[in-house]
TrEMBL record:
Gene3D superfamilies: DD-peptidase/beta-lactamase superfamily (3.40.710.10). This is Serine hydrolase domain-containing protein. It holds the Pfam family Beta-lactamase. Keywords: Hydrolase.
């Protein structure tokens, strides 16, 4: 499905020459070996004002990044799962205050880590049930194995969850495993990036009676015309799938070697469908998703959410109006902490001055492990999508630089 510039930049408040700074800047990332290739898409007032791409989807074959290239979006899956949960909420199928154990019984009687080692952890009963809103806001007390900050992280690694999920477990089994391990903290008392959204994926399955891929396809992707997005790539589209690269110690893109495991896995539907990081998508499709959010839950006659629901999701839900800097445990996340809160599936820019970025209060965003990123700025009627395939996303300051390059081009 074709992507193209839809409006002269000047008609929607951009300086065309300044927009070209985006492409020149990130072209240097490719020339210096920092990125294999990339695509960036910028819209204003619902129309594409800038579409740039440079470099390779696969370095060895010389296959260029094209408008229809497929990318692993990893944690940019999380907003899709959050939308699914809120669709069910709008139907009265669940309350945000419902205990997770009402849907997944193994989450009853949770315990919290309070000392000791991974081999001999000390725990106590949780003082608060884990609720749906805790999962949406990453205040659940769950964690990720790759954080390497707490003995509980090590417990996750020992159970086979370092990157992804054990091959022998389905999503229900994964949730039962996570529920059996201690929480880092009582739900609602801190913020930690975690498998929370994967648990939400299981909530979607139980409440809807559909598998997560089926719910996504019938309720989100087909209505929005997102025909390229799913948990696996059809082998007929193999030449469209970008290769995943891993940065070397100098931050250059290199094969690791070619991350063959990730490449092979992309063509098979996984046993455990990851609502936290499992989707593969295209610029066209994620652009459609961001436009739906910008328009308050509707696009081209397909309404997924009510406008009030989207506004509710994209305000700061951290207790007491706290920001991430004060509530986060300091582990990795796909957003910088300063000046930002967290909504129901998105980081929310609360204070651009504190965040040291040019931007708008109320802008909401997230990114993915392979250095992908998006944001939606309702105040400026703006969306941005950036796609590449270099992991980890902390290798280069792509997101902060992209942010300043987009806003410096706005001149109206």
């Amino acid at each position: 499905m074709g992507l193209q510039i839809e409006v002269d930049p000047g008609e929607v408040g951009f300086d065309a020459a300044r927009l070209q700074r985006i492409d020149r800047h990130f072209a240097r990332y490719v020339e210096s070996g920092k990125l294999p290739g990339w695509l960036v898409l910028v819209t204003r007032h619902g129309r594409i004002a800038h579409l740039g791409m440079h470099g390779f989807a696969d370095i060895d074959s010389g296959t260029p990044v094209r408008p229809d290239t497929l990318f692993r979006i990893y944690s940019m899956t999380k907003p899709v799962t959050s939308v699914a949960i809120m669709m069910l909420h709008e139907e009265g199928a669940l309350e945000l205050t419902d205990p997770v154990s009402d849907v997944i019984p193994s989450f009853a009687d949770l315990r919290v880590y309070c000392g000791g080692t991974a081999r001999a952890p000390q725990t106590r009963p949780a003082t608060e049930p884990m609720r749906i809103w805790h999962l949406l806001t990453h205040t659940s007390g769950l964690t990720y194995a790759f954080h390497y900050l707490n003995p509980v992280d090590e417990l996750y690694r020992r159970a086979g969850f370092e990157y992804g999920m054990p091959e022998d477990l389905d999503l229900a089994g994964c949730c039962d495993e996570w529920a059996s391990m201690p929480l880092l903290f009582d739900p609602g008392t801190a913020w930690n990036y975690s498998v929370s959204t994967d648990v939400l994926g299981r909530v979607v399955e139980v409440v809807s009676g559909q598998t997560l891929d089926e719910f996504f396809r019938t309720r989100i992707f087909e209505p929005l015309g997102m025909t390229d997005t799913g948990f696996a790539v059809d082998r007929a589209d193999a030449d469209r799938l970008a290769t995943l690269y891993v940065a070397d110690p100098q931050g250059r893109a290199q094969r690791h070697p070619r991350h063959e495991e990730a490449h092979a896995a992309a063509f098979e539907l996984p046993k455990a469908l990851s609502g936290g990081g499992g989707l593969i998508s295209s610029a066209h499709d994620y652009h459609r998703f961001t436009q739906m959010l910008l328009r308050g839950g509707e696009l081209d006659g397909a309404r997924l959410l009510g406008s009030r629901t989207v506004r509710y999701m994209t305000r700061n839900h951290l207790p007491g109006g706290a920001d991430l800097e004060s509530m986060a445990l300091g582990a990795f996340s796909e957003a910088a902490y300063a000046g930002k809160g967290f909504g129901l599936g998105f980081s929310v820019l609360e204070d651009p001055t504190a965040a040291k970025v040019i931007g708008s209060a109320g802008e909401f965003a997230w990114g993915g492990l392979a250095s992908t990123a998006f944001w939606v700025d309702p105040a400026e009627d703006l969306t941005v999508v950036f796609l590449t395939q270099l992991m980890p996303s902390s290798t280069h300051p792509i997101r902060s630089q992209l942010h300043q390059l987009v806003y410096q081009a706005l001149v109206d």
